[in-house]
Automatic annotation (TrEMBL), chain A:
<protein>
    <submittedName>
        <fullName>Substrate-binding domain-containing protein</fullName>
    </submittedName>
</protein>
<comment type="similarity">
    <text>Belongs to the bacterial solute-binding protein 2 family.</text>
</comment>
<dbReference type="GO" id="GO:0030313">
    <property type="term" value="C:cell envelope"/>
</dbReference>
<feature type="signal peptide">
    <location>
        <begin position="1"/>
        <end position="24"/>
    </location>
</feature>
<dbReference type="GO" id="GO:0030246">
    <property type="term" value="F:carbohydrate binding"/>
</dbReference>
<keyword id="KW-0732">Signal</keyword>
<dbReference type="InterPro" id="IPR025997">
    <property type="entry name" value="SBP_2_dom"/>
</dbReference>
TrEMBL record, chain B:
<protein>
    <submittedName>
        <fullName>ATP-binding cassette domain-containing protein</fullName>
    </submittedName>
</protein>
<dbReference type="InterPro" id="IPR003439">
    <property type="entry name" value="ABC_transporter-like_ATP-bd"/>
</dbReference>
<dbReference type="Pfam" id="PF00005">
    <property type="entry name" value="ABC_tran"/>
</dbReference>
<dbReference type="GO" id="GO:0016887">
    <property type="term" value="F:ATP hydrolysis activity"/>
</dbReference>
<dbReference type="InterPro" id="IPR003593">
    <property type="entry name" value="AAA+_ATPase"/>
</dbReference>
<dbReference type="InterPro" id="IPR050107">
    <property type="entry name" value="ABC_carbohydrate_import_ATPase"/>
</dbReference>
<keyword id="KW-0067">ATP-binding</keyword>
Automatic annotation (TrEMBL), chain C:
<feature type="transmembrane region" description="Helical">
    <location>
        <begin position="197"/>
        <end position="220"/>
    </location>
</feature>
<keyword id="KW-0812">Transmembrane</keyword>
<feature type="transmembrane region" description="Helical">
    <location>
        <begin position="331"/>
        <end position="350"/>
    </location>
</feature>
<dbReference type="Pfam" id="PF02653">
    <property type="entry name" value="BPD_transp_2"/>
</dbReference>
<dbReference type="GO" id="GO:0005886">
    <property type="term" value="C:plasma membrane"/>
</dbReference>
<keyword id="KW-1003">Cell membrane</keyword>
<feature type="transmembrane region" description="Helical">
    <location>
        <begin position="152"/>
        <end position="170"/>
    </location>
</feature>
Length: 340, 260, 355
C-alpha cells in the first residue's frame, strides 16, 4: 500500500514538474514529431527548444510512438488547441489524414506549420518549412549514376526502404533516387511498382541498423551481384554495410543515403557510405519557432521560397568524391553542419 | 482414552476481518483411526483443516503433533512433519505426469555430480517409486506413469492424490471432500482406498458432506458448528439424522458429549 | 442400535464393471491417435510445419532458397529473436507474458556499449554490467508481478516503455558506430564472428542460440526448478498447495528471463554491428510470435522450449522464402499472421484431447 502511494506521489511530482513552466510564459507553441526515437526528430526538438527559450516562447513537445502513429498526433493537436497555444509545428506521419484535425486548429486561430514533410494538399498548413526529400533522393541518385558512369546501364540496385505502409518521406526519397539515377518510376506516389530490371528488390528496414542488416542479407540472397545500395537513412546504411562486410563485398558496392547526421557523415568519411544528402532539422525547427513568434506578435505568415510551394531549408550532397554536374560539399563542411 | 492424540489443536482462532472463521476450536486425532469432520457450510471446517495443514496460520491457539507444539507457516512445513493433505481441488498439475505430480516440490536428485552440480532429477527412481506406490494401493497397470494427469478420469486423479499423500504421510493424512466430485462407482473405490490407507496404520481426517460415506468408514465423527467443535459422536451409536440435527443446530448435544 | 439409513444401497454395484479407477489405454480413430501423440509431444507440430515449409519454399523459390548458405543465413537472422523467444517461453510457461524482453535487451546492450566504448571499461566488465542491468530489469518485472500482484501483461506493458525511455534519454537515440566498437571494444562483436562449414556460414550467435535452447531444455525437463515452472503456470494454486513456493519460482523466472535478454544483447551487438537504440523495435512481438507458433500455450503450463526454436525458424523460413519467391514485404506480414492463428487453433484442438 505504502509502496503504491509512493509511486503515485512520484508520478504526481513528475507531472507537476513538467507542467510548471506553462504558467511562466504566455506565448505557447507545440512541436509534434513523428517519433522521439529517431535522432533526426530528437535534433529537431533540440533546435526548437533552444530557439523557443531564446525568444521566450513556451514550447510543448509531442511525438508518435512509431513512424506512422497517426492517432498520437491527432491527440497531440487536440491537447495543443486546448492549451491555448499560438501555433503548431508538425512533422505529419499521415500527411492526408492529419489535414482535418489541423483545420480545427487553424479555425481556432493557431498558426500551423508543417516541418520536414509537406501535407497533402500542401496548403493545409499555413506554411511549410521542409527539406525537399525528393531532391535529396535525386541528388544521391544522380551522384551514383555519375560515379558508375557507363556501368550505370547494367547496375544492380538494392532499395532499402522505410516501412510497408510507405510513409511519404520514404516514397519521396526512393522515387527521387530512382529519378536521379535515370530509372522510370511509373507511379511517383509509391515505391515498388517499377519494372526496370536493374532494381533487384525493395526491402523495408524501419530505418535502423538491425533492419538494414537483415534487408541487405535478403537482397543479397536474391542477387549476390548487387553493386548499388539505396538506403532510407544512415542507420539503415550502417546495417547494410555490416552485411556487405560479412559477405566480403564492402569494397564492391556503392551505398548512398539521406539524413546528414554526424555519425552518418563520419561514415561517409570512413568510406562506409559513398554519399549522403544532408538535411537541416535544426534550421526547420528554429524557423518554425520564429514564424510562430511573428504570428503571435502581428499576425504575419511566412512566405514560401521563390518558385516553390514551401520554404526550402535546403539539402546538400556530402561526399569526398564529387562528380561533375552534381553540386556537393566536402565531408569537412558536412561535419560542420551535421546534427546529432 | 489414555492414548495420546497424534494431532491435537487447542483454542484455534482465525478471523478474516469481522468474520470469525474459527472460534476457539479444539481437535483431536488418535492413532490408527478415521476421524470424520462434518459441519454445515461455513461452519469453519475448511479453515480448521487448513490451519492443521499449514495453509492458514491461526491468530491464536496451538497445534500439537505427538504432544509437541508445532507451528507451520506453509504447507511444506506441515508435510515435513508428516502431515499430508489431499485437497478438494487435489492440488495436482494437470499438464505434468503422474510421477512428476507425486514428487512435486520434493523431487529426488541424482547422486554424484549430475545431481549436485547440475541438479539433475533422478527420474528413473521417481518413476519406480510412483509406480510402486500406485501398485500398493492397487491403482496401476504399470506402463502409463508418464501420462499427463489431465488425461485421467476424476477417480484416477483422486487415486494419484491419495497415493501421493499415503506415500509421504508418516503421521497423518487429511482428506478434504474426496468423493464430492465423483460418481457412485468411483466414490466406492476411493472409500476402499481410504480404508486401505488406514489399515496400513495411518490415521486419517476425513472431511465430507456425504453422510452415508462418513458413517460407513469413520471411527469417530467430529461435528463442527459456528467455528468450533460442538461434540464428537460414535457413528455406531448415533444415526445420520442425529448428526445432521446436531450440525444444523436443530438439536443440542446430550450432556455427556457437550464441549466445556 | 444400528443406524437406520445404513441400508445396503450400493449392494448391486458388485455386478457393475469394476474397472473404474484403473489406468487404461484406448484410442479410436487415427485422428484421435494423432491428437494424443501431439498432446504428448508438443514440439512436433512446429517441427512438421518447419519441414513442410522448407520443402514448399524449396519448390517455390528454388535453389537460391534451398542452398546451405541461405538456410544457414536464416539461422543467423533468427538468432536474436530466437534467444529472446527462449526467455519469452519461460515467462509464458508461467501463464505470463513479457512485452519488455526486447527493451531489456536494448537497454542491456546500450550499457555494454557505453561502458566499454564511451567510458573505456574493459569489455568483460562492461558485458557483466549489461547482464546485471538485464537481470535487474527482470527482477523489477518479477517483483511487480509477485509482490504487488499486478498482471504480467500490464507490468511489462509499462516497463517496456520505461526501459526504452531510459534508453532514448540516455543515448539521445544515437547509435555507437561499428567502426568505433572495432577500435575500442572488438570483443563486443564476438558473437558476430563467423565460421564456414561446407557452404553454410554460422555466426557464433547461432551456436549461442542453440546452446541456450539446449541448456533450457535440460533445465526445464531434468531439474526440479523446471518442473516447478510448469506447475506454477499450469495451476498456481495447486502448486502452492503442493508445497511449491510459487512466488519465489515466479520471481526467479523473471530474473532468469532478464539474464537471457542480457545474453541476447551481447549477441545483438555482434549481429547488428553497432549499438543501435532504435533497432529491435518489434522484437518483443516477434519473440511472442515464435513462442506461439512453437506451440506453447498462452494459458501457461503447456509447451516445449524447443518448439519456440522451431517457431522462430518457421518465421525465418517464411520470410526468406517469400522474399526469394519475389513476394512484396506486405505478404510476409500476412503469412505470419495466418501462421499465428493456425498455431493457436491447433493448440486449442490438441488441448481438447478426450480421455
Amino acid at each position: 500500500m505504502t509502496r503504491t502511494k509512493m509511486l503515485l506521489a512520484g508520478t504526481a511530482l513528475a507531472l507537476a514538474g513538467a507542467a510548471t513552466p506553462a504558467m511562466a510564459q504566455d506565448i505557447g507553441a507545440c512541436l509534434i514529431t513523428k517519433t522521439d526515437i529517431n535522432p533526426f526528430f530528437v535534433k529537431m526538438k533540440e533546435g526548437a527548444t533552444a530557439k523557443a527559450e531564446e525568444m521566450g516562447i513556451n514550447l510543448s513537445s509531442f511525438a508518435g510512438k512509431v513512424d506512422g502513429d497517426h492517432e498520437s498526433q491527432v491527440a497531440a493537436i487536440e491537447t495543443c488547441i486546448a492549451s491555448g497555444a499560438k501555433g503548431i509545428l508538425i512533422t505529419a506521419s499521415d500527411t492526408k489524414a492529419i489535414v482535418d484535425p489541423l483545420k480545427q486548429a487553424r479555425d481556432a486561430g493557431l498558426l500551423v506549420i508543417a516541418l520536414d514533410t509537406p501535407l497533402e494538399p500542401i496548403d493545409a498548413a499555413d506554411a511549410t518549412f521542409a527539406t525537399d526529400n525528393f531532391e535529396a533522393g535525386r541528388l544521391i541518385g544522380a551522384w551514383a549514376a555519375a560515379t558508375l558512369g557507363d556501368a550505370a546501364a547494367d547496375a544492380k540496385i538494392a532499395m532499402l526502404d522505410l516501412a510497408e505502409s510507405q510513409p511519404s518521406v520514404g516514397v519521396l526519397r526512393d522515387q527521387g533516387f530512382l529519378t536521379g539515377f535515370g530509372i522510370d518510376v511509373k507511379d511517383v506516389s509509391k515505391w515498388g511498382d517499377e519494372d526496370d530490371p536493374r532494381i533487384i528488390g525493395n526491402e523495408v528496414t524501419a530505418g535502423n541498423e538491425e533492419g538494414g542488416r537483415t534487408a541487405m542479407e535478403n537482397l543479397l540472397s536474391k542477387d549476390p551481384d548487387i553493386n548499388v545500395v539505396y538506403t532510407i537513412n544512415e542507420p539503415a546504411a550502417a546495417g547494410a554495410y555490416e552485411t556487405l562486410k560479412a559477405f566480403g563485398k564492402e569494397n564492391d558496392v556503392l551505398i548512398v543515403s539521406v539524413d546528414g547526421g554526424c555519425p552518418g557523415v563520419q561514415n561517409v568519411a570512413d568510406g562506409v557510405i559513398g554519399a549522403t544528402s544532408q538535411q537541416y532539422p535544426l534550421l526547420m525547427a528554429s524557423k518554425g519557432i520564429e514564424a510562430i513568434a511573428a504570428w503571435a506578435a502581428d499576425g504575419t505568415k511566412p512566405e514560401p521560397s521563390p518558385g516553390l510551394e514551401f520554404f526550402n531549408t535546403g539539402v546538400s550532397l556530402v561526399t569526398d568524391q564529387p562528380v561533375d554536374g552534381v553540386e556537393s560539399i566536402s565531408v569537412e563542411e558536412g561535419m560542420d553542419r551535421c546534427w546529432g | 482414552m489414555s492414548v495420546q492424540p497424534v494431532l491435537k489443536a487447542r483454542g484455534l482462532v482465525k478471523r478474516y476481518g469481522r468474520v470469525v472463521a474459527l472460534d476457539h476450536a479444539d481437535f483431536e486425532l488418535y492413532p490408527g483411526e478415521i476421524l470424520a469432520v462434518i459441519g454445515d457450510n461455513g461452519a469453519g471446517k475448511s479453515t480448521m483443516i487448513k490451519a492443521l495443514s499449514g495453509a492458514v496460520q491461526p491468530d491464536s491457539g496451538e497445534v500439537l503433533l505427538d504432544g509437541k507444539p508445532v507451528h507451520f507457516s506453509n504447507p511444506m512445513q506441515a508435510r515435513q512433519h508428516g502431515i499430508e493433505t489431499v485437497y478438494q481441488t487435489l492440488a495436482l498439475s494437470p499438464a505434468l505426469s503422474i510421477a512428476d505430480n507425486m514428487f512435486l516440490g520434493r523431487e529426488l536428485r541424482k547422486s554424484g555430480i549430475s545431481g549436485k552440480l547440475f541438479r539433475a532429477m533422478d527420474r528413473r527412481r521417481m518413476e519406480a517409486i510412483a509406480r510402486e506406490k500406485l501398485n500398493d494401493l492397487g491403482l496401476m497397470t504399470i506402463q502409463n506413469i508418464n501420462q499427463a494427469v489431465e488425461t485421467l478420469s476424476g477417480g484416477q486423479r483422486q487415486g494419484v492424490a491419495v497415493a501421493r499423500a499415503a506415500a509421504f504421510g508418516s503421521k497423518v493424512v487429511i482428506m478434504d471432500e474426496p468423493t464430492a466430485a465423483l460418481g457412485v462407482k468411483e466414490s466406492r473405490r476411493v472409500l476402499e482406498l481410504i480404508l486401505e490407507v488406514r489399515d496400513r496404520g495411518l490415521p486419517i481426517v476425513l472431511i465430507s458432506h456425504n453422510m452415508p460415506h462418513v458413517f460407513e468408514v469413520a471411527d469417530r465423527v467430529h461435528i463442527h458448528r459456528l467455528g468450533r467443535r460442538l461434540c464428537v459422536i460414535d457413528p455406531k451409536e448415533h444415526s445420520m439424522s442425529d448428526a445432521v440435527a446436531l450440525m444444523t443446530g436443530a438439536k443440542t448435544p446430550p450432556g455427556e458429549l457437550a464441549e466445556a | 442400535m444400528p443406524p437406520a439409513s445404513q441400508d445396503n444401497y450400493e449392494s448391486d454395484l458388485g455386478a457393475a464393471d469394476g474397472q473404474v479407477a484403473s489406468f487404461e489405454d484406448r484410442h479410436h480413430t487415427p485422428l484421435q491417435r494423432l491428437q494424443h501423440f501431439l498432446h504428448g509431444n508438443p514440439a512436433m507440430v512446429p517441427v512438421i510445419i518447419l519441414l513442410l515449409s522448407v520443402i514448399v519454399f524449396g519448390f517455390v523459390a528454388g535453389g537460391r532458397f534451398f542452398s546451405l548458405f541461405n538456410l544457414s543465413l536464416i539461422m543467423q537472422q533468427v538468432a536474436i529473436v530466437g534467444i529472446l523467444a527462449c526467455a519469452q517461453t519461460l515467462i509464458i510457461l508461467t501463464a505470463g507474458i513479457d512485452l519488455s524482453v526486447a527493451a531489456i535487451m536494448v537497454l542491456s546492450y546500450v550499457i555494454m556499449g557505453h561502458m566499454s566504448v564511451t567510458y573505456g571499461w574493459p569489455t568483460g566488465l562492461a558485458v557483466v554490467a549489461g547482464l546485471l542491468v538485464a537481470m535487474g530489469c527482470g527482477a523489477v518485472n518479477g517483483l511487480l508481478v509477485t509482490r504487488i500482484k499486478l498482471p504480467p501483461f500490464i507490468v511489462t506493458l509499462g516497463t517496456w516503455r520505461i526501459f526504452l525511455a531510459i534508453v532514448y534519454l540516455y543515448t539521445g537515440s544515437q547509435s555507437i558506430r561499428s567502426q568505433d566498437i572495432d577500435a575500442a571494444a572488438p570483443l563486443l562483436k564476438f558473437f558476430g564472428e563467423r565460421v564456414s562449414i561446407g557452404g553454410a556460414v554460422f555466426t557464433y550467435g547461432v551456436f549461442l542460440m542453440l546452446g541456450i535452447f539446449a541448456l533450457f531444455w535440460y533445465i526445464l525437463n531434468r531439474t526440479a526448478w523446471g518442473r516447478h515452472v510448469y506447475a506454477v503456470g499450469d495451476d498456481r494454486e495447486a502448486a502452492d498447495l503442493a508445497g511449491i513456493r510459487t512466488g519465489r519460482v515466479l520471481l526467479s523466472v523473471y530474473i532468469v528471463a532478464g539474464l537471457i535478454c542480457g545474453i541476447a544483447a551481447w549477441a545483438a551487438i555482434g549481429r547488428v554491428g553497432s549499438v543501435s537504440p532504435s533497432s529491435f523495435f518489434e522484437a518483443n512481438l516477434n519473440s511472442i510470435t515464435a513462442v506461439v507458433i512453437g506451440g506453447t500455450s498462452l494459458f501457461g503450463g503447456r509447451g516445449a522450449i524447443l518448439g519456440s526454436l522451431f517457431g522462430a525458424l518457421i518465421v525465418g523460413v517464411f520470410s526468406s522464402g517469400l522474399k526469394l519467391a519475389g513476394a512484396d514485404p506486405q505478404w510476409e506480414l500476412f503469412a505470419i499472421g495466418c501462421l499465428i492463428i493456425l498455431a493457436v487453433a491447433l493448440d486449442q484442438w490438441i488441448r481438447r484431447v478426450s480421455v
